[in-house]
From TrEMBL:
GO cellular component: outer membrane-bounded periplasmic space
Database matches in Gene3D superfamilies: 2.40.40.20, 3.40.50.740, Dimethylsulfoxide Reductase, domain 2 (3.40.228.10), Dimethylsulfoxide Reductase, domain 3 (3.90.55.10)
A Pfam family hit: Molybdopterin
The protein's name in its UniProt record: Asp-tRNA(Asn)/Glu-tRNA(Gln) amidotransferase GatCAB subunit C
PANTHER family: TRIMETHYLAMINE-N-OXIDE REDUCTASE, TRIMETHYLAMINE-N-OXIDE REDUCTASE 2
GO BP terms in the entry: anaerobic respiration
Molybdopterin oxidoreductase N-terminal domain ranges (all copies): 8-48
GO molecular function, one term: molybdenum ion binding
Residue ranges constituting the Molybdopterin oxidoreductase domain according to the UniProt record: 52-504
Length: 768
């Protein structure tokens, strides 16, 4: 039998699809990838999965306004009927309620291909049709995005470049990592990882003699070969640890006065707080020890070690995905400023070196592939994670980054390329909120929990069923993504779906700009070529690129050091803050008068943490981190992810003492619960989890069972997390602040139905 090898790309890696007889039978990793992700093995099963949505479908009970249970029956209809229905709903809602009654933020990772990036297309389509309510920020680093501009004038250190590995390997002596550098996270880059290089760089850094200190509740956050000092910290208390270190630096005169005077504002204000001049509470190492559970002597030693050498403070994105998540980020900048290394090779602060493949990897500043999003004429948006608040409280006020705004009244939700029934916190609350709109339209390839909670479901092709161009701004490649197989079932690409809708609504020309799929691929690539040419980099023609399957961009000429220009000359290269300096205290933030985000970094107790009064009732802090074997909820039905489950349940790791106290043994099924919800999970006993902490990966498909959803059966931890903004300043998600308890499950084990598609009525009609 002949086998074809077809170049393609996923967020977890580039590959050749192996195609036989119109089916994808395997994936061969890209030859330039030194450490391909095992997630590639999941692709063939997913493409041909029985969970694929075959035809457009409408939920039974939609017209009657029956609640969306996630277990409703669906009636298949033809594409023509489906497109007429969707166009009709958009027209009706726009006419009767206006564009701000349509929610189209459509948050989610979608595909690595940039033409068919579903979220981009959704917003493009809705904006061109008059606009919608959009979502700003993201779940990854939403708190940082709106805090950092006040402090350092930009959020580029989370969105773009940080001091890179070559600079670290050459110059850093001590890497102080909060939240760790877990290799599991390095499998992924938004837009596609061509070369997986996190392990390589960590090994080089280790070989260069760098000492690693990892502060985290979980030992596995540092790979063993780093031989890192593990400082186990109570979750959500890193700010206190940083303040304790700052106190030691001040008390022992080890802070860099000259740097603080020349490059920063607000240090004196911060110093008064740290020393307790105003509140009689010195934030010294002993104080920090009581909060963090880290010995005072360890905190003092860490401060001395960091001050005595070239140290880099790098903070995982997870720390700001928690209640009061602004504070550890701001405090880490204050700490790095006191250490004086900002803007010098291998020194200063950084974020996310272990959060995603490509962070800190040298990459020339050249444009990446993308298509443009036009402006939103409705000029309406919410902070990304405030979706349930919005749906539940139309007309209510909220505060965000110095502004007051009002939640719109949403009648129609349009989602493509995201899975809110994975990504949002407190899913039982989201389920209530989700009953509010009249119509929910979703494009999906699989019967995900979100598709099952929709009224009109349109089947989308996967990457391998269409042509595209992809690539990440953190990776030196651009990839041609060739169509490998025909559409599975009657699936259509998101582009074709929106194009057909735009035709019905009278703006097909604006949407497609007269281009078909291949013309778009060409245009996207040629934009990259033109951008590169402006920087004197010549790239091959589109035809050569397409034939070759990829192009490699040349490496940058120099190591990248964050804020090197500013360090060299702060007058010539001021920061984009009100003072032009690093704002250790911010008058602007102070002027907002938020007691949940004052004018300088401060320890404020998160709503849920091990020191809270509620910890008496809910004695375990639940950490929900990124899964090792899938991308969020993507690929969860594949063998790789299922193989790590126990009795079909997601795992929960806990410390041997916590398990023993509850009579729980390794691999026992347990109920993880709090006042918001409960889920089943399988216990894994792990000495590398600190006491009073439980760890669950995110992404097990939500399986609420019966309508009341009292017991999620598969191990989706977002039934337990709290849906509350980090603060009024940034309104980021607080996923990592949740207290729970765990009990042995001694009842019958209900089967999980997460991967059983809903009941489908074939050749149906739109149900009355
Ligand atoms: N508790 C807790 N929750 C979290 C986090 C946490 O740390 N803790 N992390 C958060 C973070 S950082 C993130 S980024 C979010 C991720 O949240 P999401 O990005 O929503 O998660 P994904 O599972 O990647 O969802 C993408 C969806 O798009 C679909 N899709 C893929 N390609 C296509 C396509 O071409 N067309 C269409 N129409 N659909 C497509 C996939 O099938 C999948 O259902 O989760 C957040 N949620
Ligand atoms: N394999 C895989 N990789 C991924 C993803 C995926 O879905 N799968 N998702 C990608 C995405 S979208 C993102 S945004 C990034 C996220 O990158 P991160 O946010 O860095 O990743 P997490 O795994 O959520 O958290 C990293 C570690 O932080 C630690 N941690 C949690 N709370 C605290 C705390 O209060 N203090 C300290 N010191 N440590 C704490 C946890 O032990 C956890 O293992 O990951 C990316 N990488
Ligand atoms: Mo993310």
């Amino acid at each position: 039998m002949t086998q074809r090898r077809v170049p393609s790309l996923a967020h977890w890696g580039a590959f050749n699809a192996l195609v036989e007889d119109g089916r994808v039978v395997g994936c061969e990793p890209f030859a330039g990838d030194p450490a391909p992700s095992p997630m590639l093995t999941a692709i063939p099963e997913m493409v041909h999965s029985p969970l694929r949505i075959a035809r457009p479908a409408v939920r039974e009970g939609w017209r009657e306004g029956k609640p969306r249970t996630g277990n409703d029956r669906f009636h298949e209809i033809s594409w023509d009927e489906a497109l007429d229905l969707v166009a009709g709903e958009l027209t009706r809602v726009r006419r009767d309620f206006g564009n701000t009654a349509i929610f189209g933020g459509s948050y989610g990772w979608s595909s690595a291909g940039r033409l068919h990036h579903a979220r981009t297309l959704t917003r493009r389509f809705l904006f061109q049709g008059g606009g919608c309510v959009d979502q700003v920020g993201n779940y990854s680093w939403g708190a940082a995005q709106f805090l950092l501009p006040h402090v350092i004038g930009t959020y580029q250190p989370v969105a773009g470049r940080v001091t890179d590995w070559p600079s670290i390997v050459k110059h850093t002596k001590l890497v102080l990592s909060f939240g760790g550098l877990a290799l599991k996270n390095g499998q992924v880059s938004s837009g596609g990882a061509g070369a997986h290089v996190l392990e390589q760089w960590l090994r080089r850094a280790k070989a260069a003699g760098i000492r690693f200190v990892v502060v985290s509740p979980l030992k596995a956050d540092a790979p063993d070969f780093l031989d890192a000092d593990w400082i186990a910290i109570r979750p959500n208390t890193d700010t206190a640890l940083m303040l304790g270190m700052a106190h030691t630096l001040i008390a022992e005169g080890r802070h860099d006065e000259a740097f603080l005077a020349r490059y920063c504002v607000g240090f004196d204000r911060f110093k008064r707080y740290v020393t307790g001049a105003d509140d009689n509470t010195p934030k010294d190492a002993a104080w920090a020890s009581r909060i963090t559970g880290v010995a005072a002597e360890t905190i003092r030693a860490l401060a001395r070690d960091a001050a005595g050498t070239t140290s880099l403070v790098t903070v995982a994105w997870s720390l700001q995905r928690a209640h009061r998540g602004e504070q550890p980020y701001w405090a880490s900048i204050a700490l790095a400023a006191m250490l004086g290394g900002i803007g010098t090779p291998g020194g200063g602060f950084a974020f996310g070196h272990g959060s995603l493949n490509g962070v800190g990897v040298p990459r020339a500043e050249l444009p990446g592939p993308e298509i443009a999003t036009p402006p939103n004429p409705a000029a309406a948006s919410i902070p990304v994670a405030r979706i349930a608040d919005m749906l539940l409280n139309p007309g209510a006020d909220y505060e965000f980054n110095g502004r007051r705004a009002v939640y719109p009244d949403i009648r129609l939700v349009y989602w493509a390329g995201g899975n809110p029934f994975h990504h949002h916190q407190d899913l039982n609350r989201l389920r209530c909120a989700w009953q509010k709109p009249e119509t929910v339209i979703v494009h999906e390839s699989w019967w995900t929990p979100t598709a099952r909670h929709a009224d009109i479901v349109l089947p989308a092709t996967t990457t391998l069923e269409r042509n595209d161009v992809g690539g990440s701004s953190r990776d030196p490649y651009i990839f041609a993504m060739h169509q490998a197989i025909a559409s599975v079932g009657e699936a259509r690409s998101d582009f074709d779906i929106f194009h057909a809708l735009a035709k019905r609504l009278g703006y097909a020309e604006a949407f497609a700009e007269g281009r078909d799929e291949m013309a778009w691929c060409r245009a996207i690539y040629e934009r990259v070529v033109a951008g590169a040419a402006r920087k004197n980099v010549a790239l091959p023609s589109f035809d050569d690129f397409w034939r070759q399957g990829f192009v490699e961009l040349p490496p940058p000429d120099e190591d990248f050091v964050l804020f090197a220009d500013f360090r060299r000359d702060p007058e010539l290269h001021p920061l984009n803050t009100p003072s032009g300096r690093i704002e250790i205290a911010s008058e602007k933030i102070g002027s907002f008068g938020y007691d949940d985000c004052p004018e300088h970094p401060a320890w404020m107790e998160p709503s849920e943490w091990l020191g809270a009064a509620d910890a008496a009732q809910w004695p375990l802090h639940l950490i929900t981190h990124q899964p090792v074997d899938r991308l969020h909820s993507q690929l969860d039905p594949a063998r790789l992810s299922r193989g790590h489950k126990i009795k079909d349940r997601e795992t929960v790791r806990l410390n041997p003492d916590d398990a023993a106290r509850r009579g729980i043994k390794d691999h026992d099924i347990v109920r993880v619960f709090n006042a918001r919800g409960a889920c089943l999970a399988a216990a894994v006993i792990d000495t590398g989890v600190m006491p009073s902490v439980a760890v669950m990966p995110t992404g097990a498909w939500f399986d609420p069972g019966d309508a009341d959803g009292a017991l999620e059966r598969h191990g989706n931890p977002n039934v337990l997390t709290r849906d509350i903004g980090t603060s009024r300043l940034t309104q980021g998600p607080s996923a990592l602040s949740a207290l729970v308890d765990i009990a042995l499950w001694d009842g019958d084990l209900p089967p999980t139905e997460a991967f059983t598609p809903p009941t489908i009525v074939r050749a149906g009609t739109v149900p009355a």
